[in-house]
Each structure stands twice: as structure tokens, then as C-alpha cells.
Amino acid sequence: MTQSLSLGWPAPAKLNLFLHINGRRADGYHELQTLFQFLDYGDLLDFKITNDGKITLHSNLNTNIADDDNLIVKAAKLLQQQSASKLGAEIWLDKKLPMGGGVGGGSSDAATTLVALNALWQIGLDQPQLAALGLNLGADVPIFIHGHAAFAEGVGEKLVAVDIPEHWYLVIAPEAHVSTAAIFQHPDLPRDTAKLSWNELLSANWKNDCQTLVSNNFPQVAKALAWLLEYAPSRMTGTGACVFGEFETQQQALECLAKMPKTFRGFVAKGTNISPLQHRLSRC
Ligand SMILES: C[C@@](CO)(OP(=O)(O)O)[C@H](O)COP(=O)(O)OP(=O)(O)OC[C@H]1O[C@@H](n2ccc(N)nc2=O)[C@H](O)[C@@H]1O
Ligand SMILES: Nc1ncnc2c1ncn2[C@@H]1O[C@H](COP(=O)(O)OP(=O)(O)O)[C@@H](O)[C@H]1O
């Protein structure tokens, strides 16, 4: 059996530096404007290519997600079907990102799987084809395949690459599971932020329109945000529950992390306009 090992494929986190909700479409989905930037921190995937056609996942995941429901396995099988490839893969996941926290770990794992296996199986799909495939797995998969910080509109699928300052962040992951669908269905969610041009947004007050609703319903989120706001401009990412504080230097972020109450879990990372996945792909 032909087997080759390819190690160290990053699946970085993302932050929504702002998330403005501009309206609700007839199909229930929301029109939004959001700014995605990657973090130089995330999960790590290793791949062994096999010729038996099987997809196997090994991970340090401490959850009851069945392998077939894991976005990594779903992504690998989707690519197999799409390409009619006879090759298989054994995949190792080192999970570091909080799950369901708005930092996009599941979507990022799926994107890394698609990008890595497209290269390792030598399928030859281009980036837009991979992003279109990834959209079937989740709304945030395309941004991770796109691989560049982006201003997103529509329901999050219209991406324009942007270069923005790369700050340091302290991200706190409160012990709360916030359902994205439940937040978007909630009657109290504000849906009337005016749509602005990118130039207008650059000088606007960045906010997350889900933040007040989530804080009101999850005291752990409100508590983490209140603590962070004492030290830095801070907001929630996505539909929560993670919150982030912005710092100019790594040292300032680390000093804040050192003061963090022991009841919080958090990490320090740098915002990056180019995804660490792109750097890994260029070494493939
Ligand atoms: C809004 C974001 C911003 O990054 O939230 P986070 O998931 O990161 O917190 C994402 O785009 C989410 O992406 P994802 O979590 O993949 O969402 P999906 O599975 O596509 O949608 C979950 C549910 O959210 C609602 N939804 C999602 C996106 C959108 N523009 N309008 C919506 O109303 C829909 O009810 C949908 O059924
Ligand atoms: N490899 C994976 N990593 C994380 N979550 C996964 C994975 N595969 C499936 N999931 C499911 O996807 C959900 C959303 O995951 P995640 O991307 O971490 O959330 P968010 O977009 O809020 O950051 C999880 O609650 C979990 O049930």
C-alpha cells in the first residue's frame, strides 16, 4: 500500500472584528456586514494518504461528535465524491480551539481538510471551486479557504480581501454554548444597522450586533466582557461565546492574560491578514 505522511497543516481561528446585521431575508437568513481576520493560533491536522479509499479520524476531541458528523470527515468524503478519487486518508486532529465559540474551529478544520487533500490527492480544484464545495459544509468555510482577511457582505458569502492592522488579541472562551440559529431567530436581535461602504466602515464605530442579546442571556459572556473592557477595547466574535480584547503588543496582551481570573480560559494570539494555512500550502 502506498502511504505518505504530511504533517502540520494549521486550521487557524478567525475573529469577526465587527458583525453588523442589516436585515432579514424572506428565507430567514440575515444580511450582514462583517470583517474576518485570522489568528496565528488554532488546531493542527496531520494527514497520511492511503490507497484504500478509507477516511479515518484520530483526535484528542473530548466530545460525543460521531466521526461521520465531524466536519473533517464530511469534508474529506465530499472531496472524494466530487473528484471520484480512489485514495483515502488517515487524519490526526490536535484540537486547541474552543468549540461552538464563534472562532470558527469546525469550519477551519473542514477548510484545511479540503485544501490539504486537494493538494495531497492531486485533485487540482482551484480556490473558488474549493470554496463553493466548502459552503455546503458551513457558511464560514469559504473564508478559511480564501485565506485572506476579508470584508464580507450578503449572508457572509461575498468576500473582498482587505489589509487591516494586525493587532494582538486576548481571547476568552466563556463556558457557554451559544446556538447560532437560536440567536438569529431571537425576536430581540437588532437587525437594522445601516449598510455602510467599506470606507465609511473604516471610520465607524465597530460593534457586534449579537453581543447585547448574548450577554443578556449568558452571564458568563457578560462577565468576561466586563472584565476585558477594563483593560482593552473588547467585543464578542461571531454569535459568541468568545470575546476578545485588542492590544498593540504581544507583551500587553500577555500581561493581561497573566491577570486573568483563574475561572476564565483564554489565549493570546496575533491577528494575521494571510491565513497560516496559505503559508503551509505554499510549502506543500
Ligand atoms: C454569523 C457567523 C459569523 O461568522 O457566526 P459564527 O458561527 O461565526 O458564530 C457565521 O457566518 C455563521 O456561520 P455558521 O455557524 O456556519 O452558520 P450556518 O450553519 O450557515 O447557519 C446557522 C444558522 O444561523 C442563521 N444564519 C446564519 C447566517 C446568516 N447570515 N443568517 C442567518 O440567519 C440561520 O438560521 C442558520 O440556520
Ligand atoms: N472538527 C470539528 N471541530 C469543531 N466542531 C465541529 C467539528 N466537527 C463538527 N463540529 C460541530 O460544529 C459545531 C460548530 O463548531 P465551531 O466551528 O467550533 O463553532 P463556531 O463557528 O461557533 O466557532 C460544534 O458545536 C460541533 O458540534
UniProtKB/TrEMBL annotation:
Pathways involved: Isoprenoid biosynthesis; isopentenyl diphosphate biosynthesis via DXP pathway; isopentenyl diphosphate from 1-deoxy-D-xylulose 5-phosphate: step 3/6
EC numbers, comma separated: 2.7.1.148
SUPFAM superfamilies found in the cross-reference section: GHMP Kinase, C-terminal domain, Ribosomal protein S5 domain 2-like
Organism (species): Shewanella yunxiaonensis
Reactions catalysed according to its record: 4-CDP-2-C-methyl-D-erythritol + ATP = 4-CDP-2-C-methyl-D-erythritol 2-phosphate + ADP + H(+)
Keyword Transferase among UniProt keywords: yes
Family designation: Belongs to the GHMP kinase family. IspE subfamily.
Annotated catalytic residues: 14, 140
Protein's UniProt name: 4-diphosphocytidyl-2-C-methyl-D-erythritol kinase
GO MF term list: 4-(cytidine 5'-diphospho)-2-C-methyl-D-erythritol kinase activity
Signal peptide start and end residues: none
Keywords: ATP-binding, Isoprene biosynthesis, Kinase, Nucleotide-binding, Transferase
Function: Catalyzes the phosphorylation of the position 2 hydroxy group of 4-diphosphocytidyl-2C-methyl-D-erythritol.
Binding sites annotated in the UniProt record for ATP: 98-108
Domain GHMP kinase C-terminal: 198-265
Domain GHMP kinase N-terminal: 70-147
InterPro entries: GHMP_kinase_C_dom, GHMP_kinase_C_sf, GHMP_kinase_N_dom, IspE, Ribosomal_Su5_D2-typ_SF, Ribsml_uS5_D2-typ_fold_subgr
Domain of life: Bacteria
